[in-house]
Amino acid sequence: MTRQHTEASGLSHPLTRRRLLRLSASALAVPYVIPSSALGLAGTVAPSERITIGMIGLGRQAIAYNLPYFLGQRDAQVVALSDVDQWRLDLNDQRDIVLYGRKRTWPKGRLERCARYRDFRALLARDDVDAVMITTPDHWHVNMALAAIKAGKDICCEKPLSTCIAEGRLLADTVARSDRVFRTDSEFRSYPMTVRAVELVRNGRIGQLKTIRMSIPITDPALPQQPEMLVPKGLDYDMWLGPAPLKPYTEKRVHPRKSYERAGWFRNTDYCQGVICNWGYHLSTVAQWGNDTERTGPVEIKGHGSFPPADGLWNVIRDFNVEYRFANGVRLLYDSVKSPHVRFEGTAGWVDYIFPNRLDAEPKSLLTAKIGPDEQHFPLKHEKRDFLDCVKTRGKTLEDAEVGHRSTSIGQLGLIACRVGKTLRWDPDKEQFTNNDEANRLLRRPDGRPPWNVWAPQKTSRVRS
To answer: Is the Cα dihedral 42, 46, 49, 51 positive or negative?
Structure first.
């Protein structure tokens, strides 16, 4: 790996104060006009005070939410983009991208000077990148985050953090030993209604918490194996596979060509564990927060679910019903049959967060109850603003790697219980099952290998266009 950078813009580095300070006085002998914005005047933020961001992964989540947010912040500057697919990497200032029902826009001209790489390792090698936003398929999260820590970058990483509990523990421990800022990127703790619900629960407004109910009505269809296809030009399929097993390319395994529709990898266990772990993370992190168990886990899990044929292309769990018991006696009931919600039930009432922005309660007076100044209050802050602020202060984010790992493991534990079909006893300190060896084998990747070495030689796929 060298630090030579091949960029669409032809510029090896954007013009920042770091870059300017490297120039000698003789290089500035000719008259040079520096705009006021470069000095932080006229209401702008000086380049030396901006956090430089590298975006790793440019799929629909990145385009819909992550990239527009960072491009719109005066104290952040996106300087590099990375994606394994060239058509995504060729992103420009077009204004006709519609995702999740609305047009996605950002300040014009913010992408023109971004460096672009199909190999994320070249982005990590840049010494002018402060932090990275990882928005890739789930199977890459741990490996990329570990590589970013090694490269000295702060990290904002999409949920769920891992595809197995053992690798999630490795990531959380590595972050804890490092001096890097880490934020698990999930917006549900940034919603006014979830903050309100958790404050009511944590301050005893529903009495003693007894039961949490959460549901997600999203199921993924099954699909048999598809014919092998030529790897499209511009797609580095070897890099896309990364730590996953070598499998033949077919479009429904990866993502649609030149479209931001739902990708096939969400539905294959080599890359994702299905909605029970992926989208369901949003709910489990709110449940953990309200139960004050965000840095631990349950002690008992049982569940059942239906699975498509394991040898199919789309083979993630479809429907499920899981029951968890925590050491404090609280039960968590998680299923796939109702609209997305998290409901906290106590001895004096209940409060229910209903996605996306509704709150219900009984008694109704809870909806207007005041939280006193001496009670527990939680900040209402955008998840990426939380990350940027902590990069500046070097403080701990509101949803760090440990919290992200524990919330991820809720879905993973439920999935394991559904696969084994027996009541499992869990030691949340050792993160081991105490009564089932088969379940313990499912704590690691199916092939038993450690996290992939991103610096090792690449595997080679068999069919190329």
So the answer is: positive
Helix axis angle, 165-177 relative to 141-150, nearest 10°?
Answer: 20
Q: C-alpha angle with apex 140: 130 to 174, nearest 5 degrees?
A: 60
Q: For domain 191-374+401-465, give the fold.
A: Dihydrodipicolinate Reductase; domain 2 (3.30.360)
Write the CA distances from 432 to 96, 409, 413, integer angstroms.
49, 12, 11
The residues that bridge with 214 in the sheet, in sequence order, are 334, 342
> Which stretches in the chain have pLDDT values below 50?
1-42
SS3 331: strand
Q: State CA 65 to chain mean position distance.
A: 12
Copy the structure tokens of residue 395: 């403080």
**CB contact at 8 A, 169 and 161:** no
What single string gives the DSSP state of each residue in 167-236?
HHHHHHHHHHHSS--EEEE-GGGGSHHHHHHHHHHHTTTTSSEEEEEEE----PPPB------PBPTTB-
Rounded to whole angstroms, how far apart are CA atoms 67 and 65?
6
Which has the closest alpha carbon to 269: 222, 233, 304, 329?
222
**Residue type (1 letter), 112:** E
Quote the radius of gyration of the chain (alpha carbons, Å).
23
- What single string gives the DSSP state of each residue in 335-373? ESSSSSEEEEEETTEEEEEETTTEEEEESGGGGGPPPPT
CATH class of 17-188: alpha beta
CA 262 – CA 240 distance, rounded (Å): 16
Q: How far apart are CA 297 and CA 365, in angstroms?
A: 32
Give domain limits for the chain.
Answer: 17-188, 191-374+401-465
Q: What is the pLDDT of residues 147-183, one digit of tens each?
A: 999 999 999 999 999 999 999 999 999 999 999 999 9
Q: What is the pLDDT of residues 274-328, one digit of tens each?
A: 999 999 999 999 999 999 999 999 999 999 999 999 999 999 999 999 999 999 9
What is the residue-wise DSSP string for 138-159? GGGHHHHHHHHHHTT-EEEEES
